[in-house]
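This section describes the prediction task in plain terms. A model, or a person checking by hand, is given the sequence of a single protein chain and must write out its three-dimensional structure as a string of tokens. No templates, partner chains or ligands are provided. The sample shown here is typical of the held-out split.
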Amino acid sequence: FGSSDSGSRRTCAGPLVAEAVAEGSNMTVAADKVASIVQAFGRWDSRGTGKLHHDVVKQVLMSLGQSEEDADLVIHQFPASKGDQLEYRAFLAWLLDDGGLAPGPGESPRQRVERVFQFWDIARTGRIPRESLMQVLRLLAGDSQDDVERIFGEATYGHDWAKGDEVDYSRWLAWMFQEEATQTPRPVCGKDYFAKPSRELFFVNRLVHPEAPAPRYATLDEFRERHAGNKAVMEQFQNRVLVCPQCSKPNGYTMTKCNSCSSSLDGVAESKNDNIFMGFIYGVGKGKFPLTLSIRRESEDLLAFDDPLAVSIVHMCVIPTSVFCPDFRFLFTDPARGLRLVDDMMDFGRQACLDQYWSSAEFRRRYWNGEDPPRTLEDLQELVVLGFNFPPSMFQLHLQFIHGPLFPFHENQALQKNHFHHGRFFPFEYVRAALACGERARMRIDADTRIEDVVRHIGALGFDYDAEHERMMGKCRRFSKRFDIWRKEDFELTVCTDGRVVSNATGEVLPDADPIKLQQADSAVMKNYGRPECSMYRYPKNPGEVLHFCA
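The expected answer:
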């Protein structure tokens, strides 16, 4: 990677780096080029650990134009090379002598230091490990290493922002540069978040069909009375859930926290409630509330609608309407048929998203940086969290179609891994890959089949759930960074990590403000759901027309 006067290693200039290296320099690389190199490593780091196997590092170096021999040599000459894993940012910093982060034109010392910290902030949490702080200080000190230990001690001892193994670098910067402390630091993803929008939002109204259908059954009670003798149909209308005591959301019966407001579900007893998805399908007018929908696309066999508990600017559920399938486990009773069904659901959601949301130039400008619509399925999938919950909160197969960016509260939760929970959320790509194995994927499934047995069976097919889930979470982090649109000036409040609510205008702490109620209010005003109104499904079914997937 250019020449070095240290004599301690042999490096070779690849095309990507060579164009940024000044001949005869100390291997200083422009920040945007460093970012490109880091991204090349980061695409392989699906878990966000900052570490990669030697073989993967070699493959990345070779993809940047290095020969296999030179890639091997430079990896083995890295002084901190231990075992078969490399901390690739430390490796890159060593390779480029100063981390590739020489001061940019017009850049203040503080801006440079902050950029160095961001370089080391693998998961965008706003915190870095203590050992990384020491490495950063040594990088910044250059030839003046004598004070590093003293500064490190002063920076970490006795400060509440340096407890445990990590350091909050935004607060460290304020301390280091003797900035006046404020009560409203700009929230960092995964920590504080904004609340109560102060500016007008933009929404995409759903298409309203001129002929709204009338209910076939006025209420769920009427439906039950008329079909009381049909045990199979009655069983379709029951969910096993834990109802959140704070926000009343029904959650999957294995959840420990509410996936709407994040309140604890400890001690909440399992109960049963109405499977309103089947009410939609059968044309029922009302249960505990009207069974109308914010429909984005509908056909004889499929239905895509805005999730009323949306966590992002585009959050749809896609359900089959001509077959009853309680959850994704049952797809493995007939993998070929299951594969066709999930592909149809994915394509249906994709088309609804493109037709309803990506077609709006103003929506793209407000939320997606004015980007052009994705040209391929793969391009769109990179922007969407897709998957199935087990156990579901509604016992009818539904594909969660969640396009980034997430709303501030939910982005905060996701980046702390309090959304799309491991062991409960199963990525579409993971399920589809297993179903594509055909007869090898077939399983005997019933209501009591353990999800651990399904995961073990899929693992035997060659698909690692842990790796696929981490890959999905990495995608979530990427689109949060790509569509980094939430700004302090657009919100009245900041909800801090410790639960304090602070006015963005005055910095005043508001002791009576309730974060849970704020989140519920924000959800109501920020989501596209029900605009301008909801309606019933236009292709309601008779009970005998909706057979169990296993029938």
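For orientation: The radius of gyration is 26 Å.
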